[in-house]
């Protein structure tokens, strides 16, 4: 496929955070962050346990048979998962990240990707979101300041056509 400023598409992975990379927790909350454990008490609905509404894919997003679905228990898609090993094994050196909660899952995954020395980390700014536009933009600026590429979807698509 076309290159993204010199980056070959076949060396790039698209991570769809909290939509394809999903959170699923133990129904008893044993693998949940301490600040969320109160949500898993007796008689309470389990917000992101397997089979709950919170662990389902968003409407319209379908994981195909050949797609890789990653289950995570923390903000970062890299923390305590085999994502980095999997991506290295198939020759991925560049990441394009989209999805939700810019200040949490997106940001932590991006900072871990930078720390793991991925050659190019891209966050498509209008394909990610936060609770408010101000929170979203502040986090995008922080990520941009560590070398993350932050195009709009249109800009990114145009770069892929070149």
From TrEMBL:
InterPro entries in the cross-refs: Isochorismatase-like_dom, Isochorismatase-like_sf
Pfam family, one: Isochorismatase
Domain of life: Eukaryota
Classification via SUPFAM superfamilies: Isochorismatase-like hydrolases (SSF52499)
Residue ranges of every copy of the Isochorismatase-like domain listed in the record: 36-151
Gene3D superfamilies: Isochorismatase-like (3.40.50.850)
PANTHER family with a match to the protein in the record: OS02G0276400 PROTEIN
Entry's family note: Belongs to the isochorismatase family.
Protein name: Uncharacterized protein LOC104211802 isoform X3
Species for this entry: Nicotiana sylvestris
Lineage: Eukaryota, Viridiplantae, Streptophyta, Embryophyta, Tracheophyta
